[in-house]
Amino acid sequence: MSLFRSSFLTLNLFALLDYVQAKTDFPTPLSEAHPELKADDGVTFDPLGVAAILYNERADRSAARLYTQYDRNLFIWPHMTMIGGTLPPMQMLVERLTAPFKWIHPAIKMCAKDTTMLSIRSNISGNVFRQLPYNLSNTWLSDIVSFEPSEHPGNDFAIVYVDRVQAEGSESDNHAQKIRIRSEIGNLRWKAGRWTLNLLCIINGAMVLTGMVFGILLADIWAFTLFLLYSCHWGASVAISLTKMVTVHTPSKIDPEDSDRFAVYEREEGGTVIFKGPQNTLETWARSTWEYKPDWTKDSLHWLWVITGSLCGVASVACMVNMHGNMQLGFLAVLVYASVAEIGSTRIARILQTKAQGPISKDAVRGNSTRSLAIIRATLAVTPRCRLTGLDWISMGLLPDMLVFREMQLLLADISQILGDYKEIPKPFPKDSRKLAITTKCEMFVHNIKAKDSGRENLALRIGKEIYKTLNFSDEDISDLDKCLKK
After folding, report:
1. What is the C-alpha separation between 314 and 306, in angstroms, rounded?
2. How many C-beta atoms lie closer than 10 Å to residue 315's C-beta?
3. With the C-alpha atoms ordered 63, 228, 40, 31, is the resulting torsion angle positive or negative?
4. Cβ distance 301 to 239 under 8 Å?
5. Chain segment 317-333, per-residue pLDDT in tens
6. Does an H or E element contain 277, and which?
7. What are phi and psi of 472, to 5 degrees?
8. What is the pTM of this model?
9. N or C: which terminus of the chain has fewer CB atoms within 10 Å of its end residue's CB?
């Protein structure tokens, strides 16, 4: 009994000691305790971590250029860790995981996404082709396709002669390209452009490597992990840029005919772009597609780029929440730098590609009060190589099928033949046999419409006057044409 009593007293003693310790640790009664937020004076940029996975159209375009590297013989396109740069690899990973057994390679889809199909009316191969692919491999056309319209955009024409397109060139073609760009901007400026593109990419890599080192020095495992993944993704991008991943494919059987054809693109925002060129060249352009030929090297690089990019996208949000504020700011600086550098790279690449095309035959007629005046100027008064002699406006559905317009087309063809191969229309037009022949043709045109379609005689007279004004005829000649109608 005494043993039991002593044990009971010992237990009571231990319970008393525990109570005293609890009172010491919690001076405030638990019933009166209430939660409080911990004050944190550190700088944080947590919400901005989503910038790495925001949709960015330029990131899609840059990734497509990385895979195609169409201008490889001129420069290497630098794909950098820009805002939204991790979204393309994440999208490709999702597409691959959800694709059926027979699937289009995600790299092809990515390049196709950056391709705009221009809806055209053409006489290429007998009006077979209704679209032309406009993408990063023919950005030298961007100034023509996006020309500035006038106050009458429906009557504005931009014309370009296309004699070379984005086919995979031979060694001799690549050599000729280098000669052209050297003659256009000089060897030093060409190399300076190439070095600038390479330097922008190297700086981007140095920034992510520096972030990884600072993550180690600051014992920030989250920052180290994030910058390590971005370093791996940057390295995969560099490796891909040195490999032919996606190439331009054109069918081997192309119509060898080299007579000029026309493709007319009517822009939604107003204005018409007319592509003129040899039949075989325009057909090659219309039938070109992207091609990915798998092999062990390309597949390995592709999956390395996709996996590291996807991990970077996840880590950009997960790690940013736990990183030090200064490291967060450094990561955002990397994204901003890469985004700004991509804009500069685009401008440099466009200049180099355009100059590599050599002299481009292009012209524009803007500020025309009527469509007939625009057609007349585009046929008679532009750069000789861009003149639209031979373009059947009616058969393409660009003019109504009316007698006055059918006769106008024949008249313009006759005048073009009378004028011959001239460079500029003289001002004023000299009084010679050519002028006499042109005035005779115009008077016959007006009389013919008056006799066969009297309701359109004023339209015929207006067209005749527009031809006279385009050819710099005098006011006296225009008055004589008015008198011709009254006869």
Report:
1. 13
2. 20
3. positive
4. yes
5. 888 888 888 888 899 89
6. strand 272-278
7. 60, 40
8. 0.79
9. N
